[in-house]
Amino acid sequence: MREIDCRLVEEKVHQFLDGELSEREADVLRHHIDACAHCLDETDLVDALKKLVKRSCTCPPAPAALRLRIVSQIKTVTVTRFDL
Fold first, then answer.
1. Which residue of 26, 33, 45, 53 could cross-link 21, Cys pair, CB 3.0 to 4.6 Å?
2. Per residue in 53-70, pLDDT tens?
3. Are 47 and 17 in contact, with CB atoms under 8 Å apart?
4. Residue 51's domain spans which residues?
5. 81 in a domain, yes or no?
6. Is 0.85 surpassed by the pTM of this model?
């Protein structure tokens, strides 16, 4: 298994936690994370944040009338050009 540095873990941590890497890539990252306290801490932090966001986003959907009103307002917004 080839050696990797912490930058690769930082770049791929979200994909790693979401199970989006190939088995080989995940094994390489897992091996590094298991041996590197810094990357283990970073991975744990990202994992905790992802779980917090997921738990916080389980609100019921907005009522249909509100969604329609918002979409309607978005479509009627005019863009003003600013020259600097």
1. 26
2. 888 877 788 899 998 988
3. yes
4. 6-75
5. no
6. no
